[in-house]
Write a structure and sequence with these properties.
Distance between the termini: 31 Å
Structural class: alpha/beta
Radius of gyration: 17 Å
Strand order of the largest sheet: 2-3-1-4-5-6
Number of domains: 1
Oligomer: single chain
Order of helices and strands: EHEEHEHHEHEHH
CATH class: Alpha Beta
CATH superfamily: P-loop containing nucleotide triphosphate hydrolases
Number of strands: 6
Number of helices: 7
C-alpha cells in the first residue's frame, strides 16, 4: 500500500456558542477557555493522523461561524469538502433542532457526488454540564430518541463530548472520522475485516478512558 500523505478538507458546522472552536482548540492545541469569542467568517486548523495501515492523513479543518449573517460565505468554505462535523450544545435544544438546516444547507451548497455515503459525524458538546444542570439532564433524556433517529436516517455516528475535558477522547473521534474519509476517497479500499478491527482498536482506547460514548 502507498504510504503518501492524504490531504482532506473538513468543515465544522453548527449554531453559535455550541463549542465548535473549543472542540478544535482542545483536540489540536490542548487549550480551553471559558470566555466565548465568536468566530468571524471561518478559522483554519490542521491535524496529522497516522492510520493503522501506515498511511498518513492531513486534515485541513475549517471552523465556521454559526452566526446567521455569515451564512452567505458558506459556498466558498463548503467547496471541495471531504467530510463534515456537525456540532450542537447538549444543553440547548434549539441548537439540536437547527442541525437539519445545517445539514441541508451543506448538501445543497457543496453538492457532493456521494450524498448517501458522504462522511458526517455528530458531536453533542458540553456533556460536562449535565451533572450540574437538571434541565440539561431532561433534554438528553427527552431527546435521545430524536438524536438517534437523526443519525440513523442519515447514517451518521454520534458522540457526546466535552471540549472542556475530553482531549484524548476527541482525538480518537477525529482519528475514526479520518479513517472513514480515507475509505471514501482512496482507490485502495480496505477490507471489512480491517475496517472493523480499526474501529475496535480506537474504540477500545475510548473504553479505557471510561468515557460514556453513545454511537448510533
Amino acid at each position: 500500500m502507498s504510504r503518501h500523505k492524504n490531504i482532506y478538507k473538513i468543515i465544522v458546522l453548527g449554531d453559535s456558542d455550541v463549542g465548535k472552536t473549543s472542540i478544535l482548540n482542545r483536540c489540536i492545541n490542548d487549550n480551553f477557555s471559558m470566555i466565548y469569542r465568536a468566530t468571524i467568517g471561518a478559522d483554519f486548523f490542521t491535524k496529522d493522523i497516522l492510520l493503522q495501515d501506515g498511511n498518513h492523513i492531513n486534515l485541513q479543518i475549517w471552523d465556521t461561524a454559526g452566526n446567521e449573517k455569515f451564512h452567505s460565505l458558506g459556498s466558498a468554505f463548503y467547496r471541495g469538502t471531504n467530510g463534515c462535523v456537525l456540532v450542537f450544545d447538549i444543553t440547548n435544544s434549539k441548537s439540536f433542532y437547527n442541525l437539519q438546516n445545517w445539514y441541508d444547507e451543506f448538501l445543497l451548497t457543496s453538492n457532493p457526488s456521494n450524498v448517501k455515503d458522504f462522511p458526517f459525524v455528530l458531536l453533542g458538546n458540553k456533556i460536562d454540564l449535565i451533572s450540574n444542570d437538571s434541565n440539561s439532564n431532561n433534554f438528553v433524556e427527552l431527546n435521545e430518541k430524536q438524536i438517534k433517529n437523526f443519525c440513523e436516517n442519515k447514517n451518521i455516528k454520534y458522540y457526546s463530548v466535552s471540549a472542556k475535558t475530553d482531549k484524548t477522547f476527541l482525538e480518537n473521534i477525529f482519528e475514526i472520522f479520518a479513517k472513514d474519509i480515507y475509505l471514501m476517497n482512496t482507490d485502495l479500499m480496505l477490507t471489512n475485516d480491517y475496517d472493523n478491527i480499526y474501529d475496535n482498536v480506537v474504540l477500545q482506547k475510548i473504553k479505557e478512558q471510561n468515557k460514556c460514548c453513545v454511537i448510533f
